[in-house]
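Q: Could you write out the predicted structure for this multi-component system? I'm mainly interested in how the pieces pack against one another.
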Amino acid sequence: MEIIGDDKKIRALFSEAKLADEQAMPSFTSVWHQAQSQALRPRRAFKLSLAAVIALLVCALISLAVWSQYSQPRATYSAFADVPALNSLAASVVKAVDEVSTSLVQKGTVHKPTRSRITRSTTQSNALIVASNGKAAKEVTNIDNWQSPTATLLASQTDGLFKSLPQLNENANELKSFLPGRANEKEK
Amino acid sequence: MKIDPMEIVDFKAELERLHGCSFGWALSCCRRDATEAEEVLQTVYLKIFEGKARYRGESSLKTWLFAVIRKTAATEYRRRLLRSLRLAADPSEANDLAAPLENQTASFERSEVHTHFQGALKTLPRRQREALHLVFYEDLSLREAADVMGVSIGSARQHYERGKKKLRESLTRMEIGYGNNWGRQENPSAV
């Protein structure tokens, strides 16, 4: 690198600065030994940033677990409500599970506090199914008892005649009595 | 991960040879704070000792060491800044942190010329100051300076030229002419 003119002056200023720096320079041995002693010193095991990250992860996992637990029953409710065939199937499954669990409880093998999550969720769904079944049964009885408001206008005296059927051992003359023209002749 | 003791012995001799230059460069990276520069150097040696900074022979040892010092100084500066912000509520500790910054100039202010020169250098942008320091103080070529700064050679050349121009202007303004006019001549063929 060729340095001429102004560069020489700048270089001179820098070399003077270098000389001044050398006076303030710490010895290599002291700096090296300090670094070595720092390396041999046991490191702090607990790191704040790492702990914060772990705490955040734990919080996220807990909230995810809670969310999944509370969001599941709604989904099963809608599914069972939409498919009535599944209702009966699920009801029978739940009933069987309940029977097994109650028998186990009676035998003393299963304790109340150690009830599993599956049993809990099936009990919840069972309650929902029972409620929906009751509602459906009520609707069926309502439909069965329904009467048309114009049914009374259609009623007549010969309703019984239309609804009754001729017997097999009746003779032809008696059968003729069903005909309206013949009935008039008889009266004459 | 620690490096081989034999390797360290060889390396130590090389580092000792470059210690003066390394300290000068660390001073420049730490805004001429001698205490901070010493801490940075210590951290660099620690990195080397622990094997966190490894020389792979891709460039000269001096260039590699200067790049490590530059990066460490930047990290230390950020850490210091965060610490000072955290301690802003406690003025006594904040004053303790600021104390070396005030004391560091005392050792260097031997003459008025140096004071003016350092003042002029401080007015330059960091990249330009670095380019000038690496070329004039550390006797590095522009390519080596570019490697240390982590920029292309073209960019390093730009920083060097602009820095030189600004320094000249600053010195002229401060009336340190060394008996001549600083802005009189251009020197495009310096590198």
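A: Regarding packing and overall arrangement: Chain B touches chain A through 42 residues (CB under 8 Å).
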